[in-house]
Design brief:
The structure holds two protein chains of two kinds. Chain A is α/β, with parallel strands linked by helices. Chain A is 35% helix and 18% strand. In chain A, strand 10 and strand 11 form a beta hairpin. In chain A, helix 4 (88-101) crosses helix 14. The chains are: A alpha/beta, B mainly beta. The complex binds zinc ion. Zinc ion (ZN) is lined by residues 44, 46-47, 49, 58, 60-61 of chain B.
Amino acid sequence: MAKRRVAIVGTGQTHHKSHRPDVSGRELIYEAVTRALEDADLSIKNIDAIIIGNMDHFEGINYVDCWSIDGSGGYHKPVIKLTTGGTTGSTLAIGGYHFVASGMFDKVLIIGWEKNSESDTTGAITTAFDPVWDRLVFAGAISGLAVEAQSYMAKYGATDRDGARVSVRDRKHACNNPYAQLRKEVTLEEVLASPMLADPIHLLDVCPRTDGACAVIMASEDYAEKITSTPDWIWATANRHKYTYLGDVNWGELDSMAEASRDLFKKCGITEPRKQIDVIEMYQPYSFAGIIWIEDMGIVPRGKGAEYIWSGATDMGGELPINPSGGVIACNPIGATGLIRCAEAALQVMGKAEARQVPDVNFAVSTGFGGCMWTDMLLHGKKKPNL
Amino acid sequence: MENIEYIIIESGKAVQPFNYSVGMYGSKFFYELKNNRKFLGVQCPKCKKVYVPPRRVCGDCFVEMKEFVEVGPKGTIGTFTILRFAFIDPETGTQKPIPYGYGFIKLDGADTLFQHYIDVHDESKVKIGARVEPVFSDEKKGTIKDILYFRVID
Ligand SMILES: [Zn+2]
């Protein structure tokens, strides 16, 4: 467990778009960083260390920790890069938590970013997979997600209509979020009529490609309450990895999320997640995950995900709203995406989520997902955690 | 500054070749595939799981595996998808022919799934649980492409 308490005290993000030709990568980073500093009412001088990351190969330029100093504010500061593929953003958050919780640093700036427009997404993602055994048939993120959905549907009889219902939810929620890329509602019929990319995934079942950045500032207990009257306390983090080759995966269930959830909830005394958690910001890159992964998380029993989604329980105003921000289906600057989930969960706890605010949030969960089927999770709380 | 056109600089065709070692376990697999058209797996001495492709360590048990076992060549479809969107295959730089079947095959005797193409000329037959067999290439190179694809057995 942590050596000391850690809270998020400020967040900032860019207005995410499919293309940002008006800025270079470091300038995009600068926008998110200045917004986070402004949100926390801090100057870059107050920051002790910086953790930054994106997904390797997306821009064909590595070592962002080194070349982004103008944008990150890392001039003559300790800067470290973390990159774990799809989970990069959530791993950055977990890394920031470790930095502060360990007692090594008091105020840490965490930055995730991506300019997906600068390369071929499928080509870049492919570099995360084994060249000899995984790549022959591989077709980027969508192929792995499609086989997961296919397997789940065969086991539990879910339909593409069930998946579409999740897209409808997230795209509706995104209309409340000024930072989201896709802010237009879609109907069930539109999702089902959109082109089939890889059975059973339609175009409107999956995330777009996005340019965007997010920054989060974490502080130790000594500073957190001086910086803000509404800190978002990090109760715990969890992370699980599972396989070597894609053929090793237990398709149809996300084992890494099941394990990470058990770990996270046990650390925090969460015994009935459906009742105790008020909102979830899930790294859900396609619609079917919205059904499958809430089962892995223990929100509902196996095979009951679709029913729960159809009941409206995860819509705004429902029992457990999921992705008030519109989530990943509405916006996916990959290296920032996991950190955006974390920032959005923080906004919910801090009561700063404006039009997308869920009332009275005591506990929020944010997650990260990587195409290699691994999971990061954070539990955010209004009250201070026990040490 | 208002009317400026944003400039994008292109990298042009950039190529970076690599040479990958498959190790003793991978080499043995490809040797058997090339010369005898057999599939080799490896069994964990502790959990008894049979892995394909064979590899040195069982990740679950973190013990070394030495017991090679023959698996397949027939199997069942564990899961699959049919790829329908056009994209450039980063391995070849050319457009991937679509639609194509992306199969995870449970070779008989194995516990993990083996990825390869599935013939989708009759899509109605391609289902989870369907029996399949490999169709081999005439050319024997000792790579994964010695198998052309798997097809559903009636
Ligand atoms: Zn084992």
